[in-house]
Design a protein that fits this description.
The protein is mostly helical and 118 residues long. Helix content is 53%, strand content 3%. It contains 4 helices and 2 strands. Strands 1-2 form a two-stranded antiparallel sheet. The longest helix has 24 residues. The termini are far apart.
Length: 118
Amino acid sequence: MTSSDAAVPKVRIRYPEPFGPSGRDIFRSISSNFELYPWEIVTLTEAARTADRLDRIHADMEDTDDDQRAKLLTEARLSGHHLTRLLASLRIPEETDENTVTRPQRRGGARAAYKARR
């Protein structure tokens, strides 16, 4: 936490919108256990939306032809990657064996995809 973070109060929140089952589970599991800053609430809301979008994509894959299924599979892969990054950016604390709580490393900013060396 930086000195600028100290001026912003953490808040407990309710659902900002109706989510599907996956989005509701993600949102509830994090928001009920942690007090979040307003920008973390925005990130958590987007993660919940993304989880619900993944559910809809997977449901749509069952009733489509192979060409459309390939497009949906690509979108599912990208959405899954997006969800992973959103959840990682929240830096949810983890409990270790000694019951101490640690937070994942904070990076300096958004990172671009890695490029192959030449």
